[in-house]
Amino acid sequence: MVGGLGAPASAAPGTPSAPAVQPLITWAASADVTFTKVTQQTVRNVVTTSVAGRGLQVSLSNAFGSAPVTFRTISVGVVQSGATLVPGSSRQVFFGGDPSITVPVGEEVLSDPLPGNVAARQTLAVSVYVDAEVRRATGHNLALTANYLSEPGDHASEDSGSAYTRGLSRWIFLESLVVTQRAAQSTVAALGDSITDGVGSTPGTNRRWTDYLAQRLIAAPPNAEKGVANEGISANRVLSGGVGQSALRRFGRDVLDQPGVETVILLEGINDINTGATAADLIEGYRELIARAHADDTCILGGTLTPNEGGSPAREAERQAVNDFIRNSGEFDGVVDFDAVVRDPSAPTTFRPVYDSGDGLHPSDAGYRAMGNAVPLGLLDCSL
Predict the structure, then answer these.
(1) For the residues 137-141, what does the mean pLDDT come to?
(2) Would you say residue 9 has pLDDT above 80?
(3) Statement to judge: residues 294 and 348 lie in one domain
(4) For residues 123 and 105, what is the distance between their CA atoms, to the nearest angstrom?
(5) How far apart are CA 220 and CA 83, in angstroms?
(6) Alpha-carbon span 133 to 115, nearest angstrom
(7) Which domain holds residue 319?
(8) To 10 degrees, what angle do helices 209-218 and 365-374 make?
């Protein structure tokens, strides 16, 4: 797609019918409470797709709101720069043919498909206007890209960004973007904490490890491309809530219920260890996630926990025990050894200096690149 949402392709008369297709995610961010207030304003969310596809659908969430929310106008356009869209690229989104929809507390909604094609790694703006006060907006608290809140009024379909006078560091209301692809395609979900959320990477550059994985998948042979759903929440834990629901609690909504997910990469547990959980506790949680994934015919890959330089010797021992389980138990469907890739061979409890963002816990841009490149693509096609 160049300049806008592409025109739909059509088969020539007499050609075979179109191949079977299935929905999959081209962008996602785990929903959480943001405590952001939106009052008769328009939010412009800026996101970058992973895989190409057709029939873009927008998923909006009121999962953690305090009252029903009416989304009055929603549009999708191609970003030119900042809050400004490529002229003429904006398309209004509908729900059962209606331009607005009211979503109860605890619910999400998926729009009708937009006609046309969406390109891989394309930067889109999803603009959402609410004509009342929303005191507790659902969203994702760490966007690592600039988003925008407008002056009062419906500015959803405007190409100009002049009405968007306030910057936001989070995504508001938007949960995922769904496209259709050939039935051979699927979604890879990444379930994790701040290391999956991208803390330590350069804002505005899409340098999370999942972004690097998405770039590799785009370059994969035909029929091997996959969508990538980043389901990381900074400070999240496997076993107990705190910042976001625990991984155990959100696994269904954020992973198993998402369209096209056939494989999940689990990289989470360091925050549990840093708040007193033992390796035995985490392994029990991992086994529950493995069992639930397999019951859903979903493959689950274990990602080893990366260095935790601020941790005590006791916490380091727990991390090593967890990584030994991930590597050697055989209970996961495969292993992504993130730790082996980023650790310093001469001091294996620490990052290689080039891979450290500076805090001894979160990778740098180079570290995230190494992690994204460490995922064996063949494991993403595992079958149960």
Answers:
(1) 98
(2) no
(3) yes
(4) 29
(5) 32
(6) 32
(7) 182-381
(8) 50
Q: Residue 343 CB: number of other CB atoms within 10 A?
A: 19
Pair type for strands 73-81 and 123-129: antiparallel
C-alpha to C-alpha distance for 329 and 308, rounded to whole angstroms: 22
In a shared domain, residues 130 and 263: no
- Reported as a single tens digit per residue, the pLDDT across 187-222 is 999 999 999 999 999 999 999 999 999 999 998 877
230 and 366 housed in the same domain: yes
Tell me which residue has tokens 């494991």: 379
Each residue's pLDDT tens digit, 54-103: 999 999 999 999 999 999 999 999 999 999 999 999 999 999 999 999 99
Residue 9 placed within a domain: no
**CA angle, residues 33, 298, 122, in degrees to nearest 5:** 60
In this prediction, residue 15 has a pLDDT band, given cuts at 50, 70 and 90, of very low
CA atoms of 99 and 95, how far apart (whole Å):
6
Residues 73 and 100 in one domain: yes
For the cut 70, the answer to whether the pLDDT of residue 177 exceeds it is yes
CATH code of the domain containing 200: 3.40.50.1110
Q: Are residues 358 and 221 in the same domain?
A: yes
290 assigned to some structural domain: yes
**pLDDT reported for residue 242:** 84
Q: Which of 17 and 220 is assigned the larger pLDDT?
A: 220
| 172 shares a domain with 280 | no
Distance of alpha carbon 164 from alpha carbon 99, whole angstroms: 22
Per the prediction, the chain carries an average pLDDT of 94
Q: Could you tell me the CA-to-CA distances from 67 to 115, 173, 228, 233, 253 in Å, in that order? A: 32, 13, 31, 23, 20
Task: Looking at the structure, tell me whether residues 108 and 227 fall in a common domain.
Answer: no
Q: How many domains, in total, are found in the chain?
A: 2
Sign of the C-alpha dihedral, residues 236, 383, 57, 145?
A: positive
Q: How far apart are CA 128 and CA 108, in angstroms?
A: 14
Cα–Cα distance between 42 and 219 in angstroms, integer?
Answer: 36
Query: Percentage of the chain surpassing pLDDT 90?
Result: 88
User: Pick from 176, 206, 225: which residue ends a domain?
Assistant: 176
Specify if 17 maps to a domain: no
**Residue at 237 is within a domain:** yes
Share of the chain above pLDDT 70, in %: 94
**One domain, residues 349 and 220:** yes
| Residue 356 vs residues 186, 241, 323, 365, 370: alpha-carbon distances, Å | 32, 27, 20, 9, 11
Backbone angles phi, psi at 198, to 5 degrees: 100, 15
